[in-house]
Amino acid sequence: MSETAYNNATQSYVIAPPAMAVLPVEGCDRLFPVNRIFCIGRNYAAHAVEMGHDPDKEPPFFFLKHPSNLSVGEDFPYPTQTNDVHHEIEMVVALAKGGTDISVEDALDHVFGYGVGLDMTRRDLQGEAKKLGRPWEVGKSFEKSAPCGPLVPASRIGHPAGGAVTLDVNSERRQSGDLNQMLWKVPEMITILSQYFELQPGDLIMSGTPAGVGPIERGDVIHGKVTGVGEITVKVV
Ligand code: MN
């Protein structure tokens, strides 16, 4: 019997294996297989302030969503055990190559492409977890908590360092920022993550949200856009 944690041979399973999470790639009939989803916290100063924190550039911190939390082209079902679900619009970075101790200069060579995602958050449960010093999963990593649009290859759009990041709810502007306001830029995020983890092809990074996060209700239509990358529309049901 194999000693690896992965089934590299052809052994069969005692239950049906979970499906691999995937994202579509714009203009391509092949899929992007998703490994992990890293998310950076408080990466825009104005959002840090609205959450009650210092706007200064502190060392970044990360949490994860589970790949099975992704949802593509589907409605967002209002989740259980919460009365305060917030939208967070974020640019998603998709890695084609992994590694450890990746230099800032080499970091962008590891990127496959970019997308637009929503870091949907049970804010009440996250707030309680913060207060009690507990982990954030119940607030951040629930089913369909990561709606995401198709990835666009960097070979097509380059590596966007600036561009408006906006989110409307029912055509009313809620979030507005610019990629150039990120405290930690994409190459720096990759470098720092690669010092803590061995990054893998298929890893995603949700790059943080600008100010203006707020609650959504059933029936709302959320429309997010990252100029130069793409758009996403999600209905809350
Ligand atoms: Mn977020």
Keyword list:
single chain; 237 residues; alpha+beta; Fumarylacetoacetate hydrolase, domain 2; 6 helices
Task: Write a concise synopsis of the structure shown.
With 237 residues, the protein is of the alpha+beta class.
Give a written overview of the molecule.
The chain has 237 residues and is α+β, with helices and mostly antiparallel strands. 16% of the residues lie in helices and 30% in strands. It has helices at residues 45-50, 104-107, 123-132, 137-140, 154-157, 186-196; strands at residues 22-24, 31-33, 37-40, 62-65, 70-71, 85-87, 89-95, 111-118, 121-122, 146-147, 152-153, 164-169, 172-178, 204-206, 214-215, 221-226, 230-235. The chain is globular, with a radius of gyration of 18 Å. The longest helix has 11 residues, at 186-196. The protein has 6 helices and 17 strands. The model has no long low-confidence stretch (mean pLDDT 95). It has a 6-stranded mixed sheet with strand order 4-3-14-7-8-11. A 4-stranded antiparallel sheet has the order 13-12-16-17, with no helix packed on it. A 3-stranded antiparallel sheet has the order 9-6-15. Bound molecules: manganese (II) ion. Manganese (II) ion (MN) binds at residues 39, 88, 90, 119, 206, 208-209. Manganese (II) ion binds next to loops.
